[in-house]
Backbone:
């Protein structure tokens, strides 16, 4: 095994171009487990922790979050509540100090906690190679299957970008305790009251992050009716319908963390709560 | 390959295999057995150390990638006021039973109190969520945190 620790993005991309089989290492919370247990023995590992450009984070008109930004920094510096809540549910302080947004995108697990948030925010994943220009993909284009991303071998995830969407956002996650859990199911709802846009995305209930478009359309109607600029309380029937539409959009399986039936059930519950919270927040 | 770190204020170097974790290097190459090896997957917190000032699980740090870093382990805790207060409070409160998780807890509690000297009960629980203890039921460990905080 060879390990390199490039200092600049240009250096890192050159190396990826020359040795496309190189495995990028961000916070180590996934790859190091595989190495410790002998499940993976990559020939070349490129540690990204010293690449300065990947730690950049700007939160002005458009958020640009470098791939190397940790969950700890996300929850301190980003203002989108769904992203903050998602970052806070990841692991423990130790894990949040190590794990990064780029690592979550690179591992591309259907249970990745920031991924439904990025999907609901209509975020773009920014990838780059030494030769080509930046490519920008939305979450749907990025995620090709469980732990399968659209990253080409010579590319690195450099950032994620999104428009800040105000305070009507919620992230919910079901698991066996508050900390240190891989989601049995998670869900992000973003209601951008200025742009009049609704994004609903679910994780751990399908091979990729799933958008629930019918639920988004339904919620848009509710906010249209109640007035986008005003807080409201959805009727029990509306909440029920919204939850059911999310459950219908889920495609869960039975696995070690939960059953398909439970996941469908919990998605509906989380969706109702997310709707109530976002409708109340302005 | 050869890696070197500043560990608890001392410059140390070791020859390592590239795939070794920082935890392995601390214990097996440098003879620092305070950080404990249990889950090797970041779940238990018994290998908690400060890497360039950040609380992390040493088992998830690739030693080769941490070359040149500053590491503070449980062995270095007594070097400052917060670390000493935590160690003493853990003993006095009975936050130690079998002792295996204790080094990780001491490092995590010291990290918490160095940032937030008087944390509330929920803040303590959240800050220590990554450290697992199978003996105490945590009550006395949480008491130790308050005891240490009262002396800072």
Residues:
């Amino acid at each position: 095994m060879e390990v390199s620790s490039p200092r600049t993005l240009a250096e890192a991309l050159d190396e990826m171009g020359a040795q496309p089989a190189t495995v990028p290492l961000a916070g180590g919370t996934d790859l190091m487990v595989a190495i410790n247990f002998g499940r993976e023995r990559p020939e070349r590992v490129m540690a990204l922790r010293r690449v300065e450009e990947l730690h950049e984070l700007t939160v002005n008109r458009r958020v640009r979050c470098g791939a190397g930004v940790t969950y700890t920094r996300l929850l301190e510096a980003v203002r989108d509540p769904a992203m903050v809540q998602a970052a806070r549910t990841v692991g423990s302080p130790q894990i949040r100090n190590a794990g990064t947004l780029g690592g979550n995108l690179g591992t591309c697990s259907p249970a990745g906690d920031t991924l439904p948030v990025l999907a609901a925010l209509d975020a773009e994943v920014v990838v780059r190679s030494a030769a080509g220009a930046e490519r920008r993909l939305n979450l749907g284009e990025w995620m090709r299957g469980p732990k399968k991303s659209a990253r080409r071998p010579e590319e690195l995830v450099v950032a994620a970008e999104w428009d800040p969407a105000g305070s009507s956002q919620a992230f919910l996650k079901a698991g066996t305790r508050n900390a240190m859990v891989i989601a049995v199911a998670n869900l992000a709802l973003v209601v951008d009251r200025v742009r009049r846009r609704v994004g609903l995305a679910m994780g751990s209930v399908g091979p990729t992050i799933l958008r629930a478009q019918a639920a988004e359309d339904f919620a848009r109607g509710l906010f249209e009716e109640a007035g986008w600029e005003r807080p409201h309380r959805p009727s029990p029937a509306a909440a029920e319908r919204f939850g059911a539409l999310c459950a219908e959009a889920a495609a869960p399986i039975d696995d070690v963390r939960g059953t398909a039936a439970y996941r469908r059930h919990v998605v509906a519950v989380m969706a109702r709560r997310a709707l109530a919270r976002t409708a109340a927040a302005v | 390959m050869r890696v070197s770190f500043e560990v608890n204020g001392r410059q140390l170097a070791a020859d390592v295999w590239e795939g070794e974790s920082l935890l392995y290097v601390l214990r097996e190459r440098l003879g620092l057995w305070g950080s404990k090896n249990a889950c090797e997957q970041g779940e238990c917190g018994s290998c908690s150390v400060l890497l360039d000032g950040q609380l992390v699980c040493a088992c998830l740090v690739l030693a080769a990638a941490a070359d040149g870093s500053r590491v503070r382990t449980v062995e270095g805790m007594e070097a400052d006021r917060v670390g000493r207060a935590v160690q003493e409070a853990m003993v006095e409160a009975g936050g130690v039973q079998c002792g295996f998780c204790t080094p990780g807890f001491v490092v995590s509690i010291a990290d918490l109190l160095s940032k937030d000297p008087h944390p509330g009960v929920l803040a303590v629980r959240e800050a220590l969520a990554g450290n697992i203890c199978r003996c105490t039921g945590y009550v006395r460990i949480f008491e130790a945190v308050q005891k240490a905080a009262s002396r800072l």
